[in-house]
Automatic annotation (TrEMBL):
Entry-linked InterPro entries: Nucleotide-bd_a/b_plait_sf, RBD_domain_sf, REX1-like_exo, REXO1/3/4-like, Ribonucl_H, RNaseH-like_sf, RNaseH_sf, RRM_dom
CDD domains: REX1_like
Biological source species: Vicugna pacos
Keyword Hydrolase: yes
Domain RRM, first and last residues per copy: 570-640
Descriptive protein name: RNA exonuclease 5 isoform X2
Keyword terms, alphabetized: Exonuclease, Hydrolase, Nuclease, RNA-binding
A Pfam cross-reference name: RNase_T
Cellular component aspect of the GO annotation: nucleus
Domain of life: Eukaryota
Basic residues bias: start-end ranges: 10-21
Length: 744
């Protein structure tokens, strides 16, 4: 397109009611994710992915470290440092971030009801321990408690803009924006173009001779200041019949692109206008979508009271051959003298401090332009005409002061980005908003924070139903379900029983042995299978087996499920490795296809390498082939498929000595747990774990490809003690790593 465009995304006010819009990104978005280069090169299938090995020695991820990952997921490496504890590749290919918080649950819940949390353990490859929470867990992971010495990012950007001169400031009444809108803030409906204005500026209108074949959007609902906004931008080419549509992008008010479609014109193309549209012949060749297809999709997507926002929107609607009655045109909203119009690129820089339509990029990004118009509209509504007039846009444009202002903005942004900004500020800096779904009774600083769209519900069920509707509309969502934590006495008993259970699962009876057997040789034999915590000689045993108690009755089932855990699947455990094992493995790496990482644990006291290790492979089949080789005559190692994750090792190491008991000792369930089982009934944590694992699984499967999803069990903290939390994360349809990542 010949007019200038740009991108950003403005977000809805708190309490806004929005109609559900499917998060369906089609057409050019698919081509973009497939790696179509704007210059017509062959596609590269890049996808966002997480590193296989999250950390080397740190088994616990702090709330600040988690916040660092979330900020990086929003802004990428150009604006914030990379997280120190994990690697997120191709961050720009993330489509959205969704966090499910199970308030009141902890790591103890997960392993106490491990079999019930089926979806979590089978889907998420990456698990990590969380420290016990503070009084406001969500505020910690979002970064709301971090100190701000110069205010938030958007304020710093606004204050760095050159202000109007005193002479101009004293004469604001002559500013065309003040003359049209007055000096007080205006509502959304006041920003709409009237029918007379639409007629004056050549918008397509029903009944006009040149609009006979145009399709109406059927949006005829009642318009209020709470009606939903949608940013629209189109790119066109020149055909034998004039300008025709080649791409359409529609962005919802939450910041999500709900439609991004390449379109094949009906007539012969004579000029692709690539310098403006970014569209080339090679990009359009495989496209089969026609104008009538996008007309049908747009009619289905827009609710009856939808307001379209764009820059020179009349040209977009004419390219679409559609009629829509409710529009905000940012080229007319930001009124200029003598009927002239500011370019979108200029407004984005002067108002929002953003660089768009950069010279190093071929053509405009329609989605970026649509988001920018939304943000400009929200800025106007938030700050009002007087604030706009004080910016003295005419002087900036006329006297070419934009370059100096832009340099000052860049310097300010660089300074602010070094500060401990919050996730909310990062979202605000790119014109996006955070969605927070929670129950009415839950209190968090997040719910009343700027740039957070909070929806409060009466129950977990209502939170679930709202999540199905709202998540597709927002690029960043936090969905919090609330559960009653274990009572202190029950927590203590269950904690002891769980640790005892894992100890008994790691205990083996073997025999018979004579009274004169060599204990040193015996210990050396068992040690060849892995490290031994303790050994007791029991002369009466006549077989090799685990102890049988009421705590280990499900041991075989649990061991099988542990082996199928997504983090363990594809991982093998080896015992008897030497200090030269890694070098030998690297020398013969051609034997171990699909090897992603080598984990060589070290003794925490001496720092020396232990005599066992873990190898992670891309697939279970690759792991099985490697296990056969390593247990063969050339390597002579002992091993099997892994059963435990690394954060679990740390938990087991923390087992207090007083909790251990002689193998085989029968344990009677304490009355407190018996009573809890009887009293809680359907609300029992075991049932809750099974039910909500399945429900969250449904929400997860409804997410689009490239969604970063985190499940957080924050842990609990009270005067009676604290429990560590647990985090699980993964990217929907994550691309597997093809490069071995050796970590020691």
């Amino acid at each position: 397109m010949e007019r200038e465009r740009e991108r950003s995304g403005r977000t809805p006010k708190k309490g806004r009611k929005r109609r559900p819009v499917p998060n369906k990104v089609v057409g050019s978005a698919e081509a973009k994710r497939a790696g179509w280069d704007l210059e017509g090169r062959q596609p590269e299938a890049k996808k966002a992915r997480l590193s296989t090995i999250l950390f080397a020695e740190n088994y616990e991820v702090t709330h600040d470290q988690l916040c660092d990952l979330l900020k990086y997921a929003v802004l990428g490496k150009s604006s914030v440092p990379k997280p120190s504890w994990c690697q997120l590749f191709h961050q720009n290919h993330l489509n959205n971030v969704v966090i499910f918080v199970l308030q009141g649950m902890s790591q103890l819940h997960f392993y106490r009801f491990y079999l019930e949390f089926g979806f979590f353990r089978k889907i998420f490859r990456h698990k990590f321990r969380l420290p016990p929470p503070s009084s406001d867990f969500l505020a910690d992971i979002i970064g709301l408690h971090k100190k701000q010495t110069t205010g938030d990012l958007s304020r710093a950007m606004e204050e760095s803009l050159p202000s109007a001169s005193p002479k101009v400031s004293s004469n604001l009444q002559n500013d065309p924006i003040i003359q049209k809108y007055g000096s007080k803030k205006v509502g959304l409906t006041r920003c709409l173009l009237t029918k007379e204005e639409m007629k004056t500026y050549h918008f397509p209108l029903q009944g006009f001779p040149d609009c006979e074949n145009f399709v109406p959007t059927k949006c005829n609902g009642s318009i209020t200041d709470n009606s939903p906004l949608f940013g629209l931008d189109c790119e066109m080419c020149l055909t034998s019949k004039g300008r025709e549509l080649t791409r359409i992008s529609l962005v919802a008010e939450g910041g999500c692109c709900v439609m991004d479609e390449l379109v094949k014109p009906d007539n012969k193309i004579v000029d692709y206008l690539t310098s403006f549209s970014g569209i080339t012949k090679k990009i359009l060749n495989p496209v089969t979508t026609k104008l009538k297809d996008v007309q049908r999709q747009l009619k289905a997507l827009l609710p009856p009271n939808a307001i379209l926002v764009g820059h020179s929107l009349d040209l977009d609607l004419r390219a679409l051959k559609m009629i829509h009655p409710y529009v905000i045109d940012t080229s007319l909203l930001y009124v200029r003298e003598q009927g002239r119009r500011f370019k979108l690129k200029f407004l984005a820089k002067a108002i929002l401090g953003k660089d768009i339509q950069c010279s190093d990029r071929l053509g405009h990004d329609a989605t970026e332009d649509a988001r920018t118009t939304l943000e400009l509209a929200r800025y106007f509504l938030k700050y009002g005409p007087k604030k706009i007039a004080e910016l003295n846009l005419e002087a900036l444009a006329s006297h070419q002061e934009l370059h100096a202002a832009g340099q000052e903005l860049r310097n300010t942004v660089e300074v602010v980005q070094q500060l401990n900004t919050s996730v909310l500020e990062c979202l605000d800096s790119v014109g996006q908003k955070l969605l927070f779904l929670t129950q009415e009774a839950d209190a968090s600083e997040l719910s009343s924070s700027k740039n957070c769209q909070t929806v409060k519900c009466f129950s977990n069920k209502e939170v679930f139903e709202q999540a199905r509707v709202e998540i597709p509309l927002f690029p960043f969502s936090i969905v919090q379900f609330s559960f009653e934590p274990f009572p202190p006495n029950l927590t203590e008993e269950m904690n002891k029983r769980m640790k005892i259970k894992w100890t008994e699962m790691s205990t083996v009876f073997a025999g018979p042995f004579s009274k004169n057997c060599n204990l040193t040789a015996l210990k050396r034999l068992f040690k060849s299978f892995g490290p031994i915590r303790s050994m007791t000689l029991v002369l009466e045993t006549h077989q090799v087996q685990r102890p049988v108690t009421e705590l280990t009755l499900d041991c075989d089932v649990l061991v099988n499920e542990l082996e199928q855990d997504s983090e363990n699947r594809g991982t093998i455990y080896l015992s008897g490795v030497s200090e030269t094992f890694k070098e030998r493995l690297l020398q013969q790496c051609n034997l171990f296809l699909g090897l992603e990482a080598v984990i060589l644990p070290k003794d925490l006291k001496t720092g020396k390498q232990k005599n066992y290790c873990f190898l992670k492979f891309k697939t279970f089949g690759s792991a099985q082939r490697a296990l056969d080789i390593l247990k063969g005559k050339d390597w002579k190692l002992k091993g099997r498929h892994a059963l435990t994750t690394r954060h679990l090792h740390a938990w087991l190491r923390g087992l207090p000595p007083e909790s251990r008991r002689p193998p085989g000792l029968r344990v009677i369930p304490p009355p407190s747990e018996k009573e809890a089982l009887q009293m809680l009934k359907v609300d029992h944590p075991k049932i809750a774990a099974w039910r909500w694992s399945r429900k969250i699984g449904k929400l997860y499967h409804s997410l689009g490809s490239g969604a970063l999803c985190l499940i957080l069990l924050p842990g609990t903290k009270s005067t009676h003690g604290s429990l560590s939390g647990l985090g699980l994360m993964g990217i929907k349809d994550e691309e597997e790593n093809t490069t071995p990542n050796m970590c020691s």
